[in-house]
Specification:
This protein has 195 residues and is an alpha/beta fold. Helices cover 45% and strands 15% of the residues. The longest helix is centred in the middle third of the chain and has 18 residues, at 101-118. The structure holds uracil. Keywords: 4Fe-4S, DNA damage, DNA repair, Hydrolase, Iron, Iron-sulfur, Metal-binding.
């Protein structure tokens, strides 16, 4: 049942001709990135948008940021196969620019459906765009602060399917050239391990 509903989302995104990023996808002969992982996971990770490697393969976090994510998961003893990983925006913004508000509006409903189908107990956001989207979605807008203030904290919330914990994390890409952020991220991933 979950597989079927998720496949439906994939088909809809594949045919999302009204999105300007669809034109980019066709022009560059690349793929949307729907998400990947365990459909019965406890933890769902939500990044921002596919980068070059992700659009080339259709897989989330498979480039440099993905290698950091893999390292962080390993440091917390979490198997990548046990979690689900996706992004808010499913098509690559040109030149890896930040997603535009209208792109988040276009692709957000697909993410909302993925969350309701997968029903994770924990949602870990990667970066400020998914942090803002998810915290507003779960009525945590009053708790929103710069990511430097609230990374690694756990915010209990209610989803349509029950309770869920939201944990904002830095985007792994910020740790590519910055070891102190990587240490911070490793520390924050221990929170995931503990639950
Ligand atoms: N950055 C993201 O936010 N998502 C990916 O899938 C890859 C890099």
């Amino acid at each position: 049942m979950k597989d079927e509903l998720l496949r439906q989302i994939k088909d809809e995104v594949l045919n999302l001709k009204e999105s300007p990023l669809y034109q980019e996808r066709k022009k560059n002969a690349v793929f949307p990135v729907i998400g990947e992982g365990n459909h019965d996971c406890r933890i769902m990770f939500i990044g921002e948008a596919p980068g070059k490697n992700e659009a080339a393969t259709g897989r989330p976090f498979c480039g440099a940021a993905g290698r950091i994510l893999d390292e962080l998961l390993a440091s917390a003893g979490i198997e990548r196969n046990d979690v689900y990983i996706t992004n808010i925006v499913k098509d690559r913004p040109p030149f890896n620019r930040d997603p535009l508000p209208e792109e988040i509006k276009t692709y957000g409903p697909f993410l909302d459906r993925q969350i309701n189908i997968i029903q994770p107990h924990v949602i870990a956001t990667l970066g400020r765009f998914s942090m803002e989207y998810i915290m507003r979605k779960f009525n945590l807008q009053d708790e929103l602060q710069p990511i430097s203030k609230i990374h690694g904290l756990m915010f209990p919330a209610r989803a349509e399917y029950g309770s869920v914990k939201i944990i904002p994390l830095y985007h792994p890409a910020v740790a590519i050239y910055d070891n102190s952020t990587k240490d911070t991220l490793k520390n924050d991933f221990q929170v995931l391990k503990s639950i």
